[in-house]
Amino acid sequence: MPFRKVAIIGLGLLGGSIGLAVREHLPGVATTGYDADSEVRERARELDLAQTIADDPAEAVRGADLVVLCVPVGAMRGAAQAIAPGLSEDAIISDVGSSKQRVGKALAEELPGHHVIPAHPVAGTEQSGPDAGFASLFHQRWCIVTPPEDADAAKVAALVKFWKSLGSTVEVMDAAHHDMVLAVTSHIPHLIAYTIVGTASDLEEVTRSEVIKYSAGGFRDFTRIAASDPTMWRDVFLHNKDAVLEMMDRFQADLGSMRDAIEADDGEAMFDLFTRTRAIRRSILEQGQDDARPDFGRGHE
Amino acid sequence: MPFRKVAIIGLGLLGGSIGLAVREHLPGVATTGYDADSEVRERARELDLAQTIADDPAEAVRGADLVVLCVPVGAMRGAAQAIAPGLSEDAIISDVGSSKQRVGKALAEELPGHHVIPAHPVAGTEQSGPDAGFASLFHQRWCIVTPPEDADAAKVAALVKFWKSLGSTVEVMDAAHHDMVLAVTSHIPHLIAYTIVGTASDLEEVTRSEVIKYSAGGFRDFTRIAASDPTMWRDVFLHNKDAVLEMMDRFQADLGSMRDAIEADDGEAMFDLFTRTRAIRRSILEQGQDDARPDFGRGHE
C-alpha cells in the first residue's frame, strides 16, 4: 500500500465508511479524521471511525499522504482552504463528491502545486451522519477517478490501488463525462424521487395518510432516495447544473411521449417500452449491482 | 370463515400467492385454480398452488363461494365471460386488479345478478408468473375493497374477513377514490420508473454499460419496478387513464418548478423540498410499510 496515513475530512456516511473500511482492509495504514461539527467529532471518537480524531482540519491532515474530502460538494472549497496549512507537499488530495468538474476546479484553485485527484465512489445509502457508515459500503461498487490531464501517473495509480483495497472496482474517466453519466444514473433519479414524493404529499384529493398506507404499490421505493441528505443533494444539483438540466429535458420529453401514448390508448407503445426496460434490470442483476432477491430482499413480516 | 371453496382465476404472482396463503392461513378452505395458459396450469400443479387445477374456467368456479380474478385488468371482462357458465348464484366474484372503476363496470356488465365486489390487495413484487408467489405476500399490507353502492353488506363483510385472514389490513373505499389514490401511490411511480429506465438506455453520450455499472447511485432503485409485468401495466394505464393523466400533470408541473430552481441556482427551494420528503419516509417506516434497514436491507457482498 502506497499510503502510510490517510486523513478523512468529513465524518458522515462516506467518511465514516472509509475509516472503517481502511481499518478492515488496510490495518497497517494510520487514519485521522476531522469534522467541522464538534458533536460529529465526539460521536466519531465513540464509534472509533478513525484512529485519531483531530479538532483542527490542518492538524488532521498533517503527515497524511492521502487526504479524502468527504463533505458536500458545496463545502469542498472551504474544506480545501481549511486543510491547506497542514498539507504535506507530496500528499494526494482527493474527495468523494458526486459531481467532479466544479469540485476539481475548486480544489485546484485552492491548492495550487498540490496533487489534486478527484474521485467518486458510487455507493451510499439513504442514511447520513457518523452512525451510518459501515466497512463494506464499497464492496462490489464502482469508484470513478477523474484525474486532471497533468496528473502524476504514479499518484493516480496509488489512489486507484487505495480504492481497490477497499473493495471497489475502479474506472478512470474524464470529469465532464463523469458528470454526464452520473446525471442520468444518480442525479436525475434523486430529483425525480424528491419531486414525486413532494407531489404526493401536497395533494388535496389524496391525504398524506393514504399516500403512506398504500405506498407499497411502488411509491415507497422512491421515498428511500428522497430521504437522502438535503444539503448534499442541494449542492449536487447546484454543481452539476448543466448535465442535470440536459438529462432532465430528455426525461421530460420521454414522459411527454408516454403521456401521449396513454392519451391515445396506444397500448403497443407502452408494451414495447415496458418490455425493453426489463432487460436493463436483468443486466444490473447479472453484474451484481443490485440484490437479485425479489423486492430488493425486503422483509415481508 | 364464511367460505368453503375459493376459486382463483389466473395463477401468476397474485393468484399463486392467494392459493399459498389460503393453504397456510385457512387450511379448512378448499381451493381450485385455473389459468388460460396450459404451461402455467402445469407449473401450478407442480407447485401445488391450489388443491385442484382445472383445465376449464367454468369448471374451476363450480361450487366456489368466492371467485378471485387474478388476471391483468384488460383481461377481466373475458375472464368473467369464461367463468359465467359455472358460477353459483350465491358466489362472490372479486378480483385483485390495480384499477377499480372500469373493472367493476366490466364485471357487473358481464355477470348481472351476481355479487360482484372488486378488491385490490396493495402488494406485489417485480416478479411475475406462477413461480413468483409466496404465502406471506399480503402480510401487513393493505387491501382495498370497493363494493358497488348496492352491494350485500354480509357479502362485503365476508370478503373483508377473507383478506384479513390472509394477513392484510382492509379498507373499504369508493372505486373512484381508489383509482385516484393508486394513481399517485402506484401507477405514476411505475410510469416514471419505466420512462427513466427507457431514457437512460437510449442515450448516445452515456453507454448502456455505463448506466448499468453506475446504477447504484440511485438508478437501480427504479429498475426494480420497471421490470414489472408489461401486460399488467399496459392495462393499468389504459384502464386508469383519467386519474393517471391528472396526477402526471401535477408531477410534471412540480418537476418544472424544480427545473426552474436549478436553473436559478435556488438552493433554498431545493433544500426545503428535500427536507420535507424525509418526513414521508419516516412515516412509512413507522407504519411498517417498508423495511427500515438502510438501503431496503439489500445485501452488500
From TrEMBL, chains A, B:
Pfam families xrefs: PDH_C, PDH_N
Biological processes per GO annotation: tyrosine biosynthetic process
Enzyme Commission number: 1.3.1.12
Keyword Metal-binding: no
Assigned protein family: Belongs to the prephenate/arogenate dehydrogenase family.
Database matches in PANTHER family: PREPHENATE DEHYDROGENASE (PTHR21363), PREPHENATE DEHYDROGENASE [NADP(+)] (PTHR21363:SF0)
Protein name as annotated: prephenate dehydrogenase
Source organism: Aurantiacibacter marinus
Organism taxonomic ancestry: Bacteria, Pseudomonadati, Pseudomonadota, Alphaproteobacteria, Sphingomonadales
